[in-house]
Design brief:
By secondary structure, the protein is an alpha/beta fold. The protein has a single domain (6-220), classed as Rossmann fold (3-Layer(aba) Sandwich), CATH 3.40.50. The chain has helices at 6-18, 23-34, 44-56, 71-78, 93-105, 119-130, 145-153, 181-195; strands spanning 61-65, 85-90, 112-116, 133-138, 156-165, 199-208, 211-220. It has a seven-stranded mixed beta sheet with strand order 3-2-1-4-5-7-6, with helices on both faces. Strand 6 (199-208) and strand 7 form a beta hairpin. The longest helix is centred in the C-terminal third of the chain and has 15 residues, at 181-195. The protein is globular. The chain starts with 5 loop residues before the first helix and ends with a strand.
Length: 221
């Protein structure tokens, strides 16, 4: 039998201790798997982390790009105050339907609006209606991260926190000539937030259940 990777084992220890899933979160994962959605949602520990960050900044209006089955949306919506709201953008109708059912089961439908369509098209319209957002979680297609960035910056105000998942790509971002378009997108995005004078930013490496990747964290000054 293969010895478990120490990072994976520790991730499970952390998740069990600090972020045990309740019935709604467990069901969200199971229903997404049953519907054939890719199992690329955040781990429970990562969900707890973004939840805590949203709590720390006192987020009242949250924007998410990449709904998938609604797992991360549940974590984020739970961080909101009673009068808070979350807008989450999803390109796939099937994924949005699964997410809507999962959010309803969690009792969060009244706080969450799911917008279906390509985010490059829907985000400007959402910004016109709902901005400014004070917390953004970007977890959509990495190829378009550089294209999402200017649209996100138009949707946030001073003091807003912007998180972007999967920006290390198992180290592929180190190669400027990588043939992986997702790695090239993440690399370009990282360079953009590092150089933008409106932001204070850093990237945290993450190693564990989800493999080797990283989360970008940027604050609008």
């Amino acid at each position: 039998m293969e010895t478990p990777n120490i990072f994976t084992t520790l991730d499970r220890y952390i998740d069990d201790l600090f972020a045990p899933e309740d019935e709604a979160l467990t069901a969200a994962r199971k229903e997404a798997r049953k519907a054939g959605l890719p199992e690329i949602q955040v781990s429970s520990g990562q969900g707890k982390f973004i939840y805590l960050l949203a709590k720390v900044v006192g987020a009242r209006r949250i924007l998410e790009l990449g709904t998938l089955g609604g797992y991360s949306a549940i974590w984020l919506a739970r961080a909101l105050p009673e009068d808070g709201s979350l807008v989450t953008l999803e390109i796939e109708n099937k994924y949005a339907d699964v997410a809507a059912a999962n959010l309803a089961r969690a009792g969060l439908s009244n706080k969450v609006e799911i917008v279906v369509g390509p985010a490059l098209d829907t985000l400007p319209k959402v910004t016109d209606r709902r901005a400014p957002f004070d917390f953004v979680f970007l977890d959509a297609d990495k190829i378009n991260y550089p294209n999402y960035f200017p649209l996100i910056m138009r949707s946030v105000g001073k003091g807003a926190l912007i998180l972007a998942d999967n920006v290390i790509r198992k180290g592929a971002v180190l190669d400027p000539k990588s043939d992986d378009p997702s790695a090239r997108g993440a690399r370009a995005f990282n360079a953009m937030i590092a150089a933008d004078p409106r932001l204070e930013a850093v990237v945290l490496q993450q190693v564990g259940i989800k493999g080797h990747d990283g989360l970008a964290i940027a604050r609008v000054t």
